[in-house]
Protein backbone atom coordinates (compact mmCIF):
# COMPACT_ATOMS: atom_id res chain seq x y z
CA UNK A 1 0.00 0.00 0.00
CA UNK A 2 1.39 3.40 -1.02
CA UNK A 3 0.65 6.93 0.13
CA UNK A 4 0.91 10.04 -2.04
CA UNK A 5 2.37 13.39 -1.08
CA UNK A 6 4.06 12.45 2.15
CA UNK A 7 5.77 15.22 4.09
CA UNK A 8 7.70 15.14 7.38
CA UNK A 9 6.83 17.02 10.56
CA UNK A 10 7.52 17.13 14.29
CA UNK A 11 4.90 16.01 16.80
CA UNK A 12 3.93 18.64 19.36
CA UNK A 13 0.74 17.66 21.15
CA UNK A 14 -2.45 15.59 20.89
CA UNK A 15 -5.34 17.54 22.39
CA UNK A 16 -7.87 14.73 21.74
CA UNK A 17 -8.20 11.33 20.04
CA UNK A 18 -8.84 12.76 16.60
CA UNK A 19 -6.30 15.49 16.13
CA UNK A 20 -2.68 16.37 16.79
CA UNK A 21 -0.64 19.55 16.55
CA UNK A 22 2.36 19.10 14.30
CA UNK A 23 5.21 21.41 13.45
CA UNK A 24 5.41 21.49 9.64
CA UNK A 25 8.20 23.66 8.33
CA UNK A 26 8.17 25.77 11.49
CA UNK A 27 4.41 26.26 11.53
CA UNK A 28 2.00 24.65 14.03
CA UNK A 29 -0.65 22.78 12.04
CA UNK A 30 -3.67 20.69 13.08
CA UNK A 31 -3.66 17.21 11.55
CA UNK A 32 -6.02 14.23 11.68
CA UNK A 33 -4.85 11.19 13.68
CA UNK A 34 -6.00 8.07 11.85
CA UNK A 35 -5.82 5.91 14.95
CA UNK A 36 -8.13 6.08 17.93
CA UNK A 37 -5.81 3.99 20.11
CA UNK A 38 -3.78 5.69 22.81
CA UNK A 39 -0.40 5.36 21.10
CA UNK A 40 1.02 7.22 24.09
CA UNK A 41 4.44 5.64 23.72
CA UNK A 42 4.57 6.68 20.05
CA UNK A 43 3.34 10.24 20.07
CA UNK A 44 5.93 11.93 22.19
CA UNK A 45 6.74 15.62 21.80
CA UNK A 46 9.64 16.01 19.40
CA UNK A 47 8.98 12.73 17.54
CA UNK A 48 9.44 12.84 13.81
CA UNK A 49 6.21 12.02 11.96
CA UNK A 50 5.07 11.60 8.35
CA UNK A 51 1.87 13.13 7.04
CA UNK A 52 -0.22 12.61 3.95
CA UNK A 53 -1.76 15.64 2.40
CA UNK A 54 -5.47 15.15 1.81
CA UNK A 55 -6.78 15.60 -1.72
CA UNK A 56 -10.18 16.59 -0.36
CA UNK A 57 -10.25 20.42 -0.31
CA UNK A 58 -13.38 20.50 1.91
CA UNK A 59 -11.76 18.82 4.89
CA UNK A 60 -11.07 20.81 8.03
CA UNK A 61 -7.66 19.22 8.48
CA UNK A 62 -5.34 19.19 5.50
CA UNK A 63 -3.13 16.32 6.69
CA UNK A 64 -3.40 12.74 8.02
CA UNK A 65 -0.80 11.37 10.39
CA UNK A 66 0.58 8.18 8.79
CA UNK A 67 3.80 7.14 10.48
CA UNK A 68 6.03 8.01 13.41
CA UNK A 69 9.68 7.38 14.21
CA UNK A 70 10.21 5.67 17.52
CA UNK A 71 13.58 5.59 19.23
CA UNK A 72 14.50 2.16 20.55
CA UNK A 73 16.39 1.56 23.78
CA UNK A 74 19.45 0.79 21.70
CA UNK A 75 19.28 4.27 20.22
CA UNK A 76 18.23 3.18 16.72
CA UNK A 77 15.02 4.33 15.08
CA UNK A 78 11.98 2.21 14.26
CA UNK A 79 9.41 3.51 11.84
CA UNK A 80 5.86 2.69 12.95
CA UNK A 81 2.87 3.05 10.68
CA UNK A 82 -0.13 4.16 12.73
CA UNK A 83 -2.80 4.47 10.09
CA UNK A 84 -5.58 2.24 11.40
CA UNK A 85 -7.00 1.81 7.92
CA UNK A 86 -3.73 0.41 6.58
CA UNK A 87 -3.89 -3.11 8.08
CA UNK A 88 -7.09 -4.12 6.27
CA UNK A 89 -5.74 -2.77 3.04
CA UNK A 90 -2.31 -4.46 3.25
CA UNK A 91 -3.82 -7.84 4.14
CA UNK A 92 -6.27 -7.56 1.27
CA UNK A 93 -3.49 -6.66 -1.18
CA UNK A 94 -1.31 -9.45 0.12
CA UNK A 95 -4.03 -12.10 -0.24
CA UNK A 96 -4.81 -10.86 -3.73
CA UNK A 97 -1.14 -11.42 -4.57
CA UNK A 98 -1.34 -15.00 -3.25
CA UNK A 99 -0.33 -14.52 0.39
CA UNK A 100 -1.81 -16.60 3.25
CA UNK A 101 -4.50 -18.34 1.19
CA UNK A 102 -3.70 -20.15 -2.02
CA UNK A 103 -6.12 -19.78 -4.90
CA UNK A 104 -8.42 -17.06 -3.58
CA UNK A 105 -11.22 -16.44 -6.06
CA UNK A 106 -12.91 -13.71 -4.03
CA UNK A 107 -11.61 -11.20 -1.48
CA UNK A 108 -14.36 -9.08 -0.04
CA UNK A 109 -13.99 -6.44 2.68
CA UNK A 110 -16.56 -5.61 5.37
CA UNK A 111 -18.48 -8.86 5.45
CA UNK A 112 -21.50 -9.14 7.70
CA UNK A 113 -21.51 -12.28 9.78
CA UNK A 114 -23.99 -12.68 12.64
CA UNK A 115 -24.11 -9.42 14.52
CA UNK A 116 -20.55 -8.47 13.57
CA UNK A 117 -18.87 -6.97 10.59
CA UNK A 118 -15.81 -9.06 9.79
CA UNK A 119 -12.96 -7.32 7.98
CA UNK A 120 -12.43 -9.75 5.12
CA UNK A 121 -14.23 -12.63 3.52
CA UNK A 122 -12.19 -14.85 1.20
CA UNK A 123 -13.34 -17.70 -0.99
CA UNK A 124 -11.46 -20.37 -2.90
CA UNK A 125 -13.05 -23.18 -4.85
CA UNK A 126 -13.51 -25.23 -1.69
CA UNK A 127 -13.07 -22.87 1.23
CA UNK A 128 -14.97 -20.04 2.91
CA UNK A 129 -12.74 -17.97 5.10
CA UNK A 130 -13.40 -15.12 7.53
CA UNK A 131 -10.51 -12.89 8.51
CA UNK A 132 -10.55 -10.30 11.26
CA UNK A 133 -7.61 -7.91 10.97
CA UNK A 134 -6.13 -6.04 13.91
CA UNK A 135 -3.44 -3.42 13.57
CA UNK A 136 -0.73 -3.50 16.23
CA UNK A 137 1.43 -0.50 17.11
CA UNK A 138 2.28 -1.19 20.76
CA UNK A 139 5.85 -2.42 21.06
CA UNK A 140 8.33 -2.75 23.94
CA UNK A 141 11.76 -4.27 23.45
CA UNK A 142 10.64 -6.19 20.41
CA UNK A 143 7.50 -7.60 22.00
CA UNK A 144 4.29 -6.39 20.41
CA UNK A 145 0.91 -6.51 22.12
CA UNK A 146 -2.73 -5.85 21.41
CA UNK A 147 -4.91 -4.06 22.44
CA UNK A 148 -3.28 -0.92 23.80
CA UNK A 149 -6.59 -0.01 25.46
CA UNK A 150 -9.51 -2.29 26.47
CA UNK A 151 -11.61 -3.31 23.48
CA UNK A 152 -14.92 -5.10 24.00
CA UNK A 153 -15.45 -4.99 20.26
CA UNK A 154 -12.31 -7.08 19.74
CA UNK A 155 -13.57 -9.67 22.23
CA UNK A 156 -16.87 -9.86 20.42
CA UNK A 157 -15.13 -10.33 17.08
CA UNK A 158 -13.04 -13.31 18.16
CA UNK A 159 -16.06 -14.93 19.80
CA UNK A 160 -17.94 -14.49 16.57
CA UNK A 161 -15.12 -16.18 14.64
CA UNK A 162 -15.16 -19.12 17.02
CA UNK A 163 -18.87 -19.54 16.33
CA UNK A 164 -18.18 -19.30 12.59
CA UNK A 165 -15.73 -22.21 12.78
CA UNK A 166 -18.50 -24.33 14.26
CA UNK A 167 -20.62 -23.39 11.27
CA UNK A 168 -18.01 -24.72 8.87
CA UNK A 169 -16.05 -21.56 8.04
CA UNK A 170 -12.34 -21.20 8.34
CA UNK A 171 -11.44 -18.22 10.46
CA UNK A 172 -8.34 -16.14 11.11
CA UNK A 173 -7.44 -13.39 13.51
CA UNK A 174 -4.69 -11.60 11.61
CA UNK A 175 -2.50 -9.21 13.59
CA UNK A 176 -0.73 -6.75 11.35
CA UNK A 177 2.33 -5.53 13.16
CA UNK A 178 2.76 -2.03 11.73
CA UNK A 179 6.55 -2.11 11.94
CA UNK A 180 9.49 -4.39 11.18
CA UNK A 181 11.75 -6.73 13.14
CA UNK A 182 9.83 -7.66 16.23
CA UNK A 183 10.37 -10.78 18.33
CA UNK A 184 6.84 -11.99 18.99
CA UNK A 185 3.22 -11.04 19.43
CA UNK A 186 1.21 -11.64 22.58
CA UNK A 187 -2.23 -10.44 23.72
CA UNK A 188 -2.01 -7.60 26.20
CA UNK A 189 -3.06 -9.00 29.56
CA UNK A 190 -2.32 -5.67 31.27
CA UNK A 191 -4.90 -3.65 29.36
CA UNK A 192 -7.49 -6.32 28.67
CA UNK A 193 -7.18 -9.83 30.16
CA UNK A 194 -10.60 -10.79 28.74
CA UNK A 195 -9.30 -10.36 25.21
CA UNK A 196 -6.33 -12.65 25.90
CA UNK A 197 -8.73 -15.26 27.26
CA UNK A 198 -11.15 -14.95 24.33
CA UNK A 199 -8.28 -15.26 21.86
CA UNK A 200 -6.93 -18.37 23.57
CA UNK A 201 -10.37 -19.96 23.58
CA UNK A 202 -10.90 -19.06 19.96
CA UNK A 203 -7.57 -20.68 19.07
CA UNK A 204 -8.59 -23.81 20.97
CA UNK A 205 -11.84 -23.73 19.03
CA UNK A 206 -10.01 -23.82 15.72
CA UNK A 207 -9.59 -20.13 14.89
CA UNK A 208 -6.12 -19.52 13.49
CA UNK A 209 -4.24 -16.70 15.11
CA UNK A 210 -1.43 -15.29 12.99
CA UNK A 211 0.79 -12.23 13.11
CA UNK A 212 2.92 -10.67 10.37
CA UNK A 213 5.22 -7.71 10.59
CA UNK A 214 5.45 -5.09 7.84
CA UNK A 215 7.99 -3.32 5.78
CA UNK A 216 7.24 0.31 6.62
CA UNK A 217 8.57 3.41 4.87
CA UNK A 218 7.28 7.01 5.16
CA UNK A 219 5.10 6.49 2.12
CA UNK A 220 4.34 2.74 2.04
CA UNK A 221 3.53 -0.34 4.07
CA UNK A 222 3.37 -4.00 3.10
CA UNK A 223 3.32 -7.43 4.76
CA UNK A 224 6.82 -8.78 5.37
CA UNK A 225 7.28 -11.78 7.63
CA UNK A 226 5.41 -14.06 10.00
CA UNK A 227 5.96 -13.34 13.68
CA UNK A 228 5.56 -15.93 16.46
CA UNK A 229 2.31 -15.69 18.40
CA UNK A 230 2.41 -16.42 22.12
CA UNK A 231 -1.06 -17.03 23.48
CA UNK A 232 -0.07 -18.55 26.78
CA UNK A 233 2.45 -17.81 29.47
CA UNK A 234 3.93 -14.57 28.27
CA UNK A 235 5.96 -14.51 31.49
CA UNK A 236 7.75 -17.74 30.63
CA UNK A 237 8.41 -16.45 27.15
CA UNK A 238 9.84 -13.23 28.43
CA UNK A 239 11.99 -14.89 31.02
CA UNK A 240 14.11 -16.94 28.61
CA UNK A 241 16.50 -14.23 27.45
CA UNK A 242 17.29 -12.54 30.77
CA UNK A 243 17.54 -15.93 32.49
CA UNK A 244 20.05 -17.25 29.97
CA UNK A 245 22.10 -14.05 29.99
CA UNK A 246 22.25 -14.18 33.79
CA UNK A 247 23.21 -17.87 33.77
CA UNK A 248 26.10 -17.25 31.41
CA UNK A 249 27.50 -14.65 33.80
CA UNK A 250 26.76 -16.28 37.12
CA UNK A 251 27.02 -20.02 36.64
CA UNK A 252 29.01 -22.00 39.12
CA UNK A 253 31.91 -23.95 37.75
CA UNK A 254 30.75 -27.51 38.41
CA UNK A 255 32.56 -30.64 37.21
CA UNK A 256 29.58 -31.98 35.22
CA UNK A 257 29.19 -28.70 33.39
CA UNK A 258 32.61 -29.17 31.82
CA UNK A 259 32.44 -31.23 28.61
CA UNK A 260 28.91 -32.41 29.28
CA UNK A 261 28.63 -35.64 27.33
CA UNK A 262 25.54 -37.75 27.91
CA UNK A 263 27.19 -40.21 30.29
CA UNK A 264 28.64 -37.49 32.50
CA UNK A 265 25.36 -35.59 32.58
CA UNK A 266 23.46 -38.73 33.40
CA UNK A 267 25.68 -39.72 36.32
CA UNK A 268 25.60 -36.21 37.76
CA UNK A 269 21.87 -35.75 37.43
CA UNK A 270 21.08 -39.05 39.13
CA UNK A 271 23.45 -38.16 41.98
CA UNK A 272 22.03 -34.64 42.22
CA UNK A 273 18.58 -36.08 42.78
CA UNK A 274 19.86 -37.53 46.01
CA UNK A 275 21.97 -34.90 47.67
CA UNK A 276 23.45 -31.41 47.61
CA UNK A 277 25.80 -30.14 44.92
CA UNK A 278 28.77 -29.90 47.31
CA UNK A 279 28.32 -33.47 48.51
CA UNK A 280 27.95 -34.79 44.96
CA UNK A 281 31.29 -33.43 43.74
CA UNK A 282 33.55 -36.05 45.33
CA UNK A 283 31.18 -38.93 44.59
CA UNK A 284 30.99 -37.79 41.01
CA UNK A 285 34.75 -37.57 40.45
CA UNK A 286 35.32 -40.97 42.02
CA UNK A 287 32.50 -42.63 40.07
CA UNK A 288 33.82 -41.35 36.75
CA UNK A 289 37.35 -42.33 37.63
CA UNK A 290 36.30 -45.90 38.43
CA UNK A 291 33.63 -46.25 35.75
CA UNK A 292 34.49 -43.75 33.03
CA UNK A 293 32.24 -45.14 30.29
CA UNK A 294 28.85 -46.71 29.71
CA UNK A 295 30.68 -49.95 29.02
CA UNK A 296 32.57 -49.88 32.33
CA UNK A 297 29.29 -49.26 34.16
CA UNK A 298 27.57 -52.08 32.31
CA UNK A 299 30.31 -54.52 33.32
CA UNK A 300 30.85 -53.40 36.92
CA UNK A 301 30.50 -55.86 39.82
CA UNK A 302 27.50 -55.17 42.02
CA UNK A 303 29.63 -54.64 45.10
CA UNK A 304 31.83 -52.10 43.29
CA UNK A 305 28.76 -50.25 42.22
CA UNK A 306 27.20 -50.19 45.65
CA UNK A 307 30.49 -49.14 47.20
CA UNK A 308 30.70 -46.18 44.80
CA UNK A 309 27.16 -45.22 45.77
CA UNK A 310 27.61 -45.77 49.48
CA UNK A 311 26.15 -42.83 51.42
CA UNK A 312 24.12 -41.45 48.52
CA UNK A 313 21.01 -43.49 49.31
CA UNK A 314 18.38 -44.86 46.94
CA UNK A 315 20.63 -47.67 45.80
CA UNK A 316 18.09 -48.84 43.28
CA UNK A 317 18.96 -45.82 41.23
CA UNK A 318 22.49 -47.04 40.62
CA UNK A 319 21.28 -50.56 39.95
CA UNK A 320 18.90 -49.12 37.35
CA UNK A 321 21.76 -47.13 35.87
CA UNK A 322 23.66 -50.34 35.38
CA UNK A 323 20.64 -51.94 33.71
CA UNK A 324 20.31 -48.93 31.44
CA UNK A 325 24.02 -49.11 30.61
CA UNK A 326 23.58 -52.78 29.67
CA UNK A 327 20.58 -51.79 27.56
CA UNK A 328 22.74 -49.18 25.77
CA UNK A 329 25.44 -51.80 25.11
CA UNK A 330 22.92 -54.16 23.53
CA UNK A 331 20.47 -51.85 21.78
CA UNK A 332 22.83 -49.05 20.75
CA UNK A 333 26.21 -50.84 20.61
CA UNK A 334 27.46 -48.75 23.51
CA UNK A 335 26.68 -45.37 22.00
CA UNK A 336 24.44 -43.24 24.16
CA UNK A 337 21.13 -42.67 22.30
CA UNK A 338 20.64 -39.09 21.20
CA UNK A 339 16.89 -38.59 20.96
CA UNK A 340 14.62 -37.68 23.86
CA UNK A 341 12.32 -40.67 23.33
CA UNK A 342 15.15 -43.20 23.27
CA UNK A 343 16.78 -41.67 26.33
CA UNK A 344 13.45 -41.59 28.16
CA UNK A 345 12.92 -45.28 27.47
CA UNK A 346 16.06 -46.31 29.37
CA UNK A 347 15.62 -47.98 32.74
CA UNK A 348 15.40 -45.51 35.61
CA UNK A 349 15.28 -42.42 33.39
CA UNK A 350 12.15 -40.30 33.87
CA UNK A 351 11.07 -37.04 32.30
CA UNK A 352 13.46 -34.92 34.35
CA UNK A 353 16.63 -36.90 33.67
CA UNK A 354 15.72 -37.47 30.01
CA UNK A 355 15.14 -33.72 29.63
CA UNK A 356 18.41 -32.87 31.34
CA UNK A 357 20.50 -35.29 29.24
CA UNK A 358 18.72 -34.24 26.02
CA UNK A 359 19.24 -30.56 26.71
CA UNK A 360 22.72 -30.52 28.29
CA UNK A 361 24.40 -33.14 26.12
CA UNK A 362 22.53 -32.79 22.83
CA UNK A 363 20.95 -29.32 22.91
CA UNK A 364 17.47 -30.77 22.37
CA UNK A 365 14.86 -28.22 23.52
CA UNK A 366 13.19 -30.36 26.16
CA UNK A 367 12.43 -29.18 29.70
CA UNK A 368 13.95 -30.66 32.86
CA UNK A 369 11.45 -30.06 35.65
CA UNK A 370 12.51 -31.11 39.14
CA UNK A 371 11.38 -29.77 42.51
CA UNK A 372 13.54 -26.67 42.16
CA UNK A 373 12.16 -25.78 38.76
CA UNK A 374 8.62 -26.39 40.03
CA UNK A 375 9.28 -23.88 42.78
CA UNK A 376 10.87 -21.21 40.58
CA UNK A 377 8.27 -21.40 37.82
CA UNK A 378 5.34 -21.52 40.27
CA UNK A 379 6.64 -18.31 41.84
CA UNK A 380 7.30 -16.63 38.52
CA UNK A 381 3.80 -17.29 37.26
CA UNK A 382 2.19 -16.86 40.70
CA UNK A 383 0.74 -20.38 40.46
CA UNK A 384 -0.85 -21.79 43.60
CA UNK A 385 -1.40 -25.21 42.12
CA UNK A 386 -0.18 -28.16 44.15
CA UNK A 387 3.27 -29.10 42.86
CA UNK A 388 2.95 -32.60 44.28
CA UNK A 389 0.36 -33.34 41.60
CA UNK A 390 1.63 -35.12 38.54
CA UNK A 391 -0.78 -33.10 36.38
CA UNK A 392 0.75 -29.82 37.53
CA UNK A 393 4.23 -31.03 36.66
CA UNK A 394 3.03 -32.17 33.26
CA UNK A 395 1.40 -28.82 32.54
CA UNK A 396 4.61 -27.04 33.49
CA UNK A 397 6.66 -29.30 31.23
CA UNK A 398 4.35 -28.51 28.34
CA UNK A 399 4.44 -24.78 29.03
CA UNK A 400 8.24 -24.72 29.28
CA UNK A 401 8.73 -26.81 26.17
CA UNK A 402 6.98 -24.11 24.18
CA UNK A 403 9.37 -21.39 25.30
CA UNK A 404 12.78 -23.10 25.28
CA UNK A 405 14.86 -21.34 22.62
CA UNK A 406 15.82 -23.81 19.90
CA UNK A 407 19.50 -22.91 20.25
CA UNK A 408 19.62 -22.43 24.01
CA UNK A 409 18.17 -25.56 25.58
CA UNK A 410 21.13 -26.13 27.85
CA UNK A 411 21.52 -22.61 29.21
CA UNK A 412 17.77 -22.26 29.62
CA UNK A 413 17.38 -25.40 31.74
CA UNK A 414 20.63 -24.90 33.64
CA UNK A 415 19.58 -21.30 34.22
CA UNK A 416 16.34 -22.38 35.89
CA UNK A 417 18.20 -24.91 38.02
CA UNK A 418 20.83 -22.32 38.96
CA UNK A 419 18.24 -19.70 39.79
CA UNK A 420 16.49 -22.18 42.09
CA UNK A 421 19.79 -23.10 43.73
CA UNK A 422 21.27 -19.67 44.43
CA UNK A 423 18.53 -17.02 44.12
CA UNK A 424 14.99 -18.34 44.23
CA UNK A 425 15.86 -20.56 47.18
CA UNK A 426 13.48 -22.80 49.15
CA UNK A 427 12.60 -22.47 52.83
CA UNK A 428 12.30 -18.79 53.47
CA UNK A 429 12.91 -15.60 51.60
CA UNK A 430 14.15 -15.85 48.04
CA UNK A 431 16.76 -13.25 47.05
CA UNK A 432 14.52 -11.29 44.70
CA UNK A 433 16.95 -8.36 44.75
CA UNK A 434 19.47 -10.48 42.83
CA UNK A 435 16.95 -12.10 40.49
CA UNK A 436 17.32 -11.52 36.74
CA UNK A 437 13.60 -12.08 36.13
CA UNK A 438 12.23 -10.15 39.11
CA UNK A 439 10.61 -7.62 36.76
CA UNK A 440 8.41 -10.41 35.40
CA UNK A 441 7.72 -12.26 38.61
CA UNK A 442 4.10 -12.56 39.68
CA UNK A 443 4.87 -13.79 43.22
CA UNK A 444 7.13 -10.83 43.78
CA UNK A 445 4.49 -8.44 42.44
CA UNK A 446 1.93 -9.93 44.84
CA UNK A 447 4.35 -10.39 47.74
CA UNK A 448 3.54 -14.10 47.89
CA UNK A 449 6.94 -15.67 47.18
CA UNK A 450 7.07 -17.24 50.65
CA UNK A 451 3.67 -18.92 50.24
CA UNK A 452 4.59 -20.48 46.90
CA UNK A 453 4.98 -23.27 45.94
CA UNK A 454 1.88 -24.90 47.40
CA UNK A 455 2.76 -28.44 48.31
CA UNK A 456 0.28 -30.93 49.70
CA UNK A 457 1.51 -33.26 52.35
CA UNK A 458 2.29 -36.68 50.96
CA UNK A 459 1.28 -39.82 52.83
CA UNK A 460 2.74 -39.87 56.32
CA UNK A 461 5.90 -42.00 56.58
CA UNK A 462 5.68 -45.31 58.37
CA UNK A 463 7.59 -45.35 61.66
CA UNK A 464 9.66 -48.42 62.42
CA UNK A 465 11.42 -49.16 65.67
CA UNK A 466 14.59 -51.23 65.32
CA UNK A 467 17.36 -52.47 67.55
CA UNK A 468 20.83 -52.45 66.01
CA UNK A 469 23.31 -54.94 67.38
CA UNK A 470 27.08 -54.59 67.14
CA UNK A 471 28.26 -58.14 67.85
CA UNK A 472 31.94 -57.96 68.59
CA UNK A 473 34.17 -60.97 68.48
CA UNK A 474 37.54 -59.57 69.61
CA UNK A 475 38.26 -56.98 66.95
CA UNK A 476 35.81 -58.25 64.38
CA UNK A 477 32.24 -57.15 63.92
CA UNK A 478 29.21 -59.02 62.64
CA UNK A 479 27.63 -57.76 59.45
CA UNK A 480 25.10 -59.34 57.11
CA UNK A 481 23.96 -58.86 53.55
CA UNK A 482 20.44 -57.53 53.07
CA UNK A 483 18.03 -59.38 50.79
CA UNK A 484 18.35 -58.71 47.07
CA UNK A 485 14.94 -57.05 46.90
CA UNK A 486 13.34 -54.16 48.75
CA UNK A 487 14.75 -51.38 50.92
CA UNK A 488 18.56 -51.09 50.75
CA UNK A 489 18.68 -54.30 48.74
CA UNK A 490 22.01 -56.10 48.60
CA UNK A 491 23.82 -53.76 50.97
CA UNK A 492 25.58 -54.79 54.17
CA UNK A 493 24.29 -53.93 57.61
CA UNK A 494 24.73 -54.60 61.29
CA UNK A 495 22.29 -57.22 62.48
CA UNK A 496 19.11 -55.50 63.56
CA UNK A 497 15.71 -56.58 64.75
CA UNK A 498 12.27 -54.99 64.87
CA UNK A 499 11.22 -53.20 68.06
CA UNK A 500 13.25 -51.62 70.84
CA UNK A 501 14.84 -54.34 72.95
CA UNK A 502 15.87 -54.04 76.58
CA UNK A 503 19.33 -55.09 77.71
CA UNK A 504 17.84 -58.34 79.01
CA UNK A 505 16.08 -59.04 75.74
CA UNK A 506 19.33 -58.47 73.85
CA UNK A 507 21.07 -61.02 76.03
CA UNK A 508 18.27 -63.53 75.49
CA UNK A 509 18.22 -62.91 71.78
CA UNK A 510 21.98 -63.32 71.45
CA UNK A 511 21.88 -66.66 73.15
CA UNK A 512 18.94 -67.76 71.01
CA UNK A 513 21.02 -67.31 67.85
CA UNK A 514 24.02 -69.10 69.26
CA UNK A 515 26.14 -66.17 70.40
CA UNK A 516 27.24 -66.09 74.03
CA UNK A 517 27.29 -62.50 75.33
CA UNK A 518 30.10 -61.61 77.74
CA UNK A 519 29.20 -57.95 78.06
CA UNK A 520 26.35 -55.83 76.68
CA UNK A 521 26.58 -52.08 76.42
CA UNK A 522 23.78 -49.66 75.55
CA UNK A 523 24.56 -47.23 72.70
CA UNK A 524 22.92 -43.99 71.60
CA UNK A 525 19.63 -43.94 69.78
CA UNK A 526 19.53 -42.86 66.13
CA UNK A 527 16.97 -41.89 63.53
CA UNK A 528 17.06 -42.27 59.76
CA UNK A 529 14.48 -40.96 57.33
CA UNK A 530 13.84 -42.77 54.04
CA UNK A 531 11.25 -41.54 51.58
CA UNK A 532 8.42 -43.66 52.96
CA UNK A 533 9.79 -45.06 56.20
CA UNK A 534 11.49 -43.70 59.29
CA UNK A 535 13.74 -45.90 61.35
CA UNK A 536 13.92 -45.09 65.04
CA UNK A 537 16.86 -47.09 66.25
CA UNK A 538 18.35 -48.07 69.53
CA UNK A 539 21.73 -49.84 69.66
CA UNK A 540 23.77 -52.27 71.74
CA UNK A 541 27.34 -53.38 71.59
CA UNK A 542 27.52 -57.06 72.43
CA UNK A 543 30.89 -58.66 73.20
CA UNK A 544 30.63 -62.32 72.38
CA UNK A 545 32.70 -65.25 73.54
CA UNK A 546 34.88 -66.36 70.64
CA UNK A 547 35.02 -69.92 71.89
CA UNK A 548 31.33 -70.44 72.37
CA UNK A 549 30.10 -69.12 69.07
CA UNK A 550 27.79 -71.13 66.86
CA UNK A 551 26.73 -68.63 64.28
CA UNK A 552 23.20 -69.65 63.37
CA UNK A 553 22.65 -66.61 61.21
CA UNK A 554 24.64 -65.72 58.10
CA UNK A 555 26.73 -63.20 59.96
CA UNK A 556 30.15 -62.34 58.62
CA UNK A 557 32.68 -61.39 61.26
CA UNK A 558 34.91 -58.78 59.61
CA UNK A 559 37.60 -56.43 60.79
CA UNK A 560 36.41 -52.76 60.77
CA UNK A 561 39.15 -51.70 58.36
CA UNK A 562 38.05 -54.29 55.88
CA UNK A 563 34.40 -53.34 56.26
CA UNK A 564 35.42 -49.81 55.47
CA UNK A 565 37.18 -50.84 52.28
CA UNK A 566 35.00 -53.54 50.85
CA UNK A 567 31.49 -53.53 52.19
CA UNK A 568 28.94 -50.86 51.46
CA UNK A 569 26.82 -49.96 54.42
CA UNK A 570 23.91 -47.57 54.08
CA UNK A 571 24.15 -44.27 55.89
CA UNK A 572 21.11 -45.27 57.96
CA UNK A 573 23.68 -46.97 60.21
CA UNK A 574 26.05 -44.04 60.28
CA UNK A 575 25.93 -43.48 64.03
CA UNK A 576 26.86 -47.10 64.70
CA UNK A 577 29.52 -47.40 62.00
CA UNK A 578 31.14 -44.33 63.50
CA UNK A 579 30.93 -45.86 66.93
CA UNK A 580 32.60 -49.00 65.59
CA UNK A 581 35.46 -46.91 64.20
CA UNK A 582 34.47 -47.42 60.56
CA UNK A 583 35.09 -44.28 58.58
CA UNK A 584 32.61 -43.40 55.85
CA UNK A 585 32.76 -40.51 53.37
N1 LIG B 1 20.74 -29.92 40.40
C1 LIG B 1 20.19 -30.73 39.50
N2 LIG B 1 20.83 -30.66 38.32
C2 LIG B 1 21.84 -29.78 38.50
C3 LIG B 1 22.86 -29.28 37.66
N3 LIG B 1 22.96 -29.73 36.43
N4 LIG B 1 23.70 -28.37 38.17
C4 LIG B 1 23.56 -27.97 39.44
N5 LIG B 1 22.63 -28.39 40.27
C5 LIG B 1 21.77 -29.29 39.81
FE1 LIG C 1 12.02 -16.10 42.80
FE2 LIG C 1 12.01 -13.61 43.73
FE3 LIG C 1 13.00 -14.12 41.29
FE4 LIG C 1 10.38 -14.28 41.75
S1 LIG C 1 11.67 -12.44 41.87
S2 LIG C 1 11.63 -15.76 40.63
S3 LIG C 1 10.33 -15.09 43.85
S4 LIG C 1 13.81 -14.83 43.27
UniProtKB/TrEMBL annotation:
The keyword Acetylation does not apply. GO terms for biological process: base-excision repair; mismatch repair. The keyword Membrane does not apply. Keywords: 4Fe-4S, DNA damage, DNA repair, Glycosidase, Hydrolase, Iron, Iron-sulfur, Metal-binding. It comes from the Bacteria. It catalyses: Hydrolyzes free adenine bases from 7,8-dihydro-8-oxoguanine:adenine mismatched double-stranded DNA, leaving an apurinic site. Coiled coil: none annotated. GO terms for molecular function: 4 iron, 4 sulfur cluster binding; 8-oxo-7,8-dihydroguanine DNA N-glycosylase activity; adenine/guanine mispair binding; metal ion binding; oxidized purine DNA binding; purine-specific mismatch base pair DNA N-glycosylase activity. InterPro entries: A/G_AdeGlyc_MutY, DNA_glycosylase, HhH-GPD_domain, HhH_base_excis_C, HhH_motif, MIG/MutY, MutY_C, NUDIX_hydrolase-like_dom_sf. Its cofactor is [4Fe-4S] cluster. Belongs to the Nth/MutY family. Belongs to the SfsA family. Adenine glycosylase active on G-A mispairs. MutY also corrects error-prone DNA synthesis past GO lesions which are due to the oxidatively damaged form of guanine: 7,8-dihydro-8-oxoguanine (8-oxo-dGTP). HAMAP family: SfsA (MF_00095). NCBIfam families: mutY, sfsA. This is Sugar fermentation stimulation protein homolog. It comes from Clostridium scindens (strain ATCC 35704 / DSM 5676 / VPI 13733 / 19).
